[in-house]
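Next comes the chain:
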Amino acid sequence: MTILSACQSASIRLVGRKPTTIFSSQKVFELELSDLVQEAAVDIAKAFEWQALMVLAEHQGDGTTVAFDFPAEYDRMPVKGNIHSATWQQSGYRPARDRDHWINLQTYLSAGTPGFWIVLDNKMQIYPPMGPSEKAQYYFITSEIAKSASGDGKTVISADDDVFKLDERLLTLALIWRWKEMKGLEYSESMANYERALAQIGGADKGRRILSVGSRRTSIDADLAFPGTIIP
């Protein structure tokens, strides 16, 4: 379903008519919806760690690089996101506790195998540097909340035939209460309807977990008794 259809549904409930276009119209109501739809869509996208917005990223080691650029569409990491090693399958990269821990790892402590990670300076940082044969993999949440009619990802909704990647009903309900608020009308019931739908749909989506086959011998966030390498 398109952005136009979500806006049409909201329009019928708000003003009793069905616009034929939103983004190319110069009518006041259509201009108001076109201005609200991006904000509404972004707020929905940030409310949950939606499965539809999860994207797999990979970084290949070269023996020296510590800081890796995120993909252009990167928005944020999942709260419980893990960094997996394609080489060390039984233990992944462990998150540094904080920036001070990160400094200590590089200055005083042995980072162990495969190592630690942290997000700093809007980059994925992995220490010690991965070797040329090593690869780190993780899921991130994309900022591309919509796609064009041709299927290309978009961070900004700008056309009637753009498609919202998440539930269209949520976008319609969000537009309804936001437009009422903007016009100084009573909107508490409309906002409550939206929040109930968001909780139901988001909760169901969040409950769908990705299952790992087999057992992990070492927890990703476990601290080893001696994280270094013993050389006899």
The first strand starts at residue 54 and ends at 60. Helices lie at 3-15, 28-47, 99-107, 168-182, 188-206.
